[in-house]
Design goal:
By secondary structure, the protein is α/β, with parallel strands linked by helices. The chain has two domains: 7-240, P-loop containing nucleotide triphosphate hydrolases (Rossmann fold, 3-Layer(aba) Sandwich), CATH 3.40.50; 264-415, Rossmann fold (3-Layer(aba) Sandwich), CATH 3.40.50.450. It contains 15 helices and 18 strands. The strands form four sheets. The protein has a six-stranded mixed beta sheet, with helices on both faces. Strands 15-14-13-16-17-18 form a six-stranded parallel beta sheet, sandwiched between helices. The protein has a four-stranded antiparallel beta sheet with strand order 2-1-4-5, covered by helices on one side. A hairpin with a 3-residue loop joins strand 1 (7-15) and strand 2. The chain is elongated.
Length: 416
């Protein structure tokens, strides 16, 4: 017997007078933590309203544990799906406990009163969200972060299997943003509640979510793991903004670094190929990428420090397996990339028999009039492990009229 997906979207088109999102197909597993990302007005809120049953599909289906969600009675649906909207406000002076009790309405008979079990669920919801001490305070007197916890507690009081949130960190400072997202992550892990949230901040989405749904131009543009969705090509195409993708220094998830279009560097952006290795090119790769240059690198052994930096930055790399020499085929590809570049930079790398072919490729590029910037942080004699072969080729390279020797901090000036 096949177990149905927890939440399955099949050929879904949703919207109002006109479609907002069309032909959506994706599945969400039990206990998943999913972020919906995309530009303003891309349909994130419309999708959430459809997933919770507030908005009927124009076509297609939303299945919750194999059942058509929109065919469920509202009271039944509310016991399975809870929603925290964007910018929720309470107009009257309800206490925190009273607001959280509103989440028990699907369980309380019409004209009935809350039972002891209802109050137990309210107390539990306030406890797990850390607001028990605020139970008798008017919600209107609380801070934005405290109010958001109250609305999450109200949703939890429904005992849902699926929690939908629309921009749960909007209007909150960074401290409260982390506080709310930490809470959602804990609820997701400890209570096994599936969480789906629309979120603008791409870096927070990458840090907290297991999977991401990127919507753009009325469709699902990308769906998958964080690494599959937060890519240089995806973000640049969807948001139309020059960016750099780096790795979070602690969590190693991708992080989007915004680059200003006002910088004069973008008017002078060039295609630059870096010959690196042994970690000697990492700073160059980072700095050129941050300045908007289109950077590639090679030939590098997989696992090398510079290879890892290039991987983290999602750069084009010519590589070979670990501990293997640079192959003739990789040299050919390396030369092609150099010939497509405005300039080539040789980092201050050590040379041994395995990477000596990189110097031969550089000489071939110079012969075809490609300018080379040679970074010399240490004399070549101190980095030559080839019995002098590297030194001879290196001196021939720097003797060329198309090669210039520079300190690392002078590279930007040379590139112009």
């Amino acid at each position: 017997m096949t177990v149905p997906d927890f939440l399955a979207v099949r050929d879904l088109t949703c919207g109002y007078a006109a479609p907002v999102l069309e032909d959506l197909n994706f599945q969400i597993g039990q206990g998943a933590l999913v972020g919906i990302i995309g530009p303003n007005a891309s349909g994130k809120t419309t999708l959430l309203k459809t997933l919770c049953g507030l908005l009927r599909p124009r076509s297609g289906l939303v299945l919750l544990e194999g059942q058509i969600l929109h065919n469920l009675k509202p009271a039944i649906r509310s016991r399975q799906v809870a929603v925290v909207g964007q910018g929720v406000r309470i107009a009257f002076a309800f206490s925190v406990a009273e607001v959280v009790m509103m989440g028990r309405h699907p369980y309380i008979p019409r004209m009935g009163s809350p039972s002891s079990q209802d109050w137990e669920k309210v107390e539990w919801a306030m406890e797990v969200t850390g607001i028990s001490h605020l139970a008798h305070r008017p919600v209107s007197n609380l801070s934005g972060g405290e109010q958001q916890r109250v609305f999450i507690a109200r949703a939890l009081a429904q005992e849902p299997e699926l929690l939908l949130l629309d921009e749960p960190t909007s209007f909150l400072d960074i401290g409260h943003q982390v506080e709310i997202l930490d809470l959602l992550k804990q609820l997701n892990r400890r209570q096994q509640i599936a969480v789906v949230m629309a979120i603008h901040d791409l870096n927070l989405a990458a840090q907290y979510c297991d999977r991401l749904l990127l919507v753009h131009e009325n469709r699902v543009f990308a769906w998958g793991t964080v690494d599959e969705v937060i890519t240089l090509d995806n973000i640049r195409e969807v948001y139309g903004q020059p960016v750099l993708i780096e790795r979070h220094p602690v969590y190693r998830c991708p992080q989007v670094v915004l680059l200003s279009r006002l910088s004069p560097l973008f008017d002078r952006a060039k295609k630059v190929h870096i010959v690196a290795g042994g970690g000697m090119g990492s700073d160059i790769l980072l700095n050129l990428g941050r300045c908007g240059h289109r950077v590639s690198t090679g030939v590098l052994n997989r696992g090398d420090g510079d290879w890892q930096t290039a991987q983290d930055l999602q750069l084009e790399i010519v590589d070979v397996p670990p501990f293997t020499p640079v192959s003739p085929e990789s040299c050919r590809i390396n030369l092609e990339m150099m010939l497509r570049s405005d300039a080539v930079i040789l980092a201050s790398v050590p040379f041994g028999p395995a990477n000596l072919p990189n110097l031969k490729t550089l000489l071939a590029a110079v012969e075809r009039e490609i300018p080379v910037i040679v970074v010399e942080q240490e004399p070549i004699a101190n980095r030559d492990y080839t019995g002098g072969a590297a030194t001879r080729m290196y001196r021939k390279l720097v003797g060329s009229s198309l090669a210039v020797v520079q300190e690392p901090e002078e590279i930007m000036q040379v590139l112009g």
